[in-house]
Amino acid sequence: MSRIDRASRVIAVPPPAVYGALLDRAALEAWLPPEGMRGRIDRWDPRPGGGFRMVLTYLDPVGDPGKTSDGTDVVEVGFAELVPQESVVQTAVFEADDPSYAGTMTMTWRLEAVDGGTEVTVTATGVPPGIDQAAHEVGIASSLANLAAYLTTSSPGARRKPWPRR
Length: 166
What we know:
The protein is of the alpha+beta class. It has helices at about 15-20, 25-30, 135-155; strands at about 5-10, 35-45, 50-60, 70-85, 85-95, 105-115, 115-125.
């Protein structure tokens, strides 16, 4: 069976707010980098077939040497599928000389309206073998926590309730 890395979290905002944060350049730069990293988007084209290039920098590169260079991971992300308020499917390719980080990883962000907000489930398939599964799942969970914090403190409609469930 092929490897699947996954994390999920309920975020106290409606699906349109979450979906918007998945397709907003400034928002992604703020919440996508997991704990211990910061991110910068160099190229941005938010449409199916478009994508972005993100440079992730380790705040303390001593213990985390980076995939692209000491202290950095550079990833080319493509938008494979966008279904408003429901899902975003991305392809991700790391810039790395080490073949254990080669290949195209697929990240699927599914949004489901639930009591109290939106359940966001992230599923990664085709994960390069050089990426430790436990560490990757912790990183995804960290990004989801950042997303929750970003949306519940910055979204103008974040506290509006109730919103429709599906």
